[in-house]
């Protein structure tokens, strides 16, 4: 029997669910309701429209074959009735109706449904500080906000910009402002690293340094206290605890909150964070109401705990599942591992699963393994550096997450996607050693970086290898005069001599190939810190030293490559 499906929210999930359902039940009726003027647009593309990489706003709302996804598109090609500028005021679950109001006219109507979908999305957090209503202070909410920002910059009205928040949107907006528009930009983040919560501290330092080299200024551990103006109209400054920054444009990117007021008023189950609660079929506590996208909590497949992940990729996948289930299907959305990627100028960052700190917070006895190496064959002309950090459970070797940085973004995302596919099955890190990967010199090394990562993890789990990361090395180097440390550079003399000459008391050079014959040059009462370019020669040196009964030995994971990328000064 034909149904009437009402979907509240017509961006990613809502439009996908509508189209999928109509393909399964062409004779049924679908009404898509949204309070905005624009529907089915790519919110993730907004920073690229601001930067100018996406030339026209309509491209964010167009299909791959350049058709505009407007009300007429959905009516003609999908058979879906779309009500724009229409707000859902209340849900009557008993009678299965929705009270709607057309915003331009104020006219209200009662719309009956057989099944209802909540795709109400999220709203950016606004800081509770003075001056948020000043012109020039923006959140990234929709194409309209992007249009205002881009118009202001293109009009020559922005000489200095401040971005509040160093998460995905904050980083993308900082790049958009500084790269193509050449606007001096400062990022303020109240936590102690960029991309907090999704990447480890060492990789964050590497990414931050690369962005600083491109002209971005970072103020970490800082908070905006007020936005100030000279004319009571336009923003002119951002005031913090200890300093004030001039700013003609301020982007507030401190996260989003789920739009769940409608669900809460209707008596549906909502979490403490305000997200709608759904089961594996994306059904709410009312069997006739589904929900998905930015307004719901999801199950994390590694912690089995609810997690809030407002991502367009997830919303599209969930839309198809809801469309199936509206038509009587039993499609499941089991959960997420939290996969992501972001472009930071010419550097790519990506990850999946848990960070080391996230794993510890979840109760895992975890450690991380770092590898830095070229992502192609070393002899191939076009190649770039890739740095990966694998998070594993110490006792079992179970893989818990992978994060990385790379010059070649496609290569990095490929590695992350491999691990993302493996994580739900609780794989052991050792399996990476023998994982079959496609190989050709223009695409990868013969021993893929994931294979190397597995080898290092295997050596650590078997207690054959003891490594330290860039931050550990930095702390040791800072306190070198107060500890019995012997820094041993295992590279060839030409590579190591400038460091040995600069710090003859602490920095010593014995090439790895000569070490077995020069053991008498190694003090027995010092802790040995081995270093080379990427860590491979240091590991060979560690084997030699352990065999000679030197037991207090550690290697710098990623070697000088990792230290240089992280900005550690020697």
From TrEMBL:
Keyword Aminoacyl-tRNA synthetase included in the entry's annotation: no
UniProt keyword Transmembrane, yes or no: no
Limits of the Rhodanese domain: 481-568
Listed Gene3D superfamilies: FAD/NAD(P)-binding domain, Rhodanese-like domain
Cofactor(s) needed: FAD
Entry keyword set: FAD, Flavoprotein, Oxidoreductase, Redox-active center
One of the Pfam families matching this protein, by short name: Pyr_redox_dim
InterPro entries according to UniProt: FAD-bd_OxRdtase, FAD/NAD-bd_sf, FAD/NAD-binding_dom, FAD/NAD-linked_Rdtase_dimer_sf, Pyr_nucl-diS_OxRdtase_dimer, Rhodanese-like_dom, Rhodanese-like_dom_sf
Single Gene Ontology MF annotation: oxidoreductase activity
Family stated for the protein in its record: Belongs to the class-III pyridine nucleotide-disulfide oxidoreductase family.
The name this protein goes by in its record: NADPH-dependent 2,4-dienoyl-CoA reductase, sulfur reductase
Lineage of origin: Bacteria, Pseudomonadati, Thermodesulfobacteriota, Desulfovibrionia, Desulfovibrionales
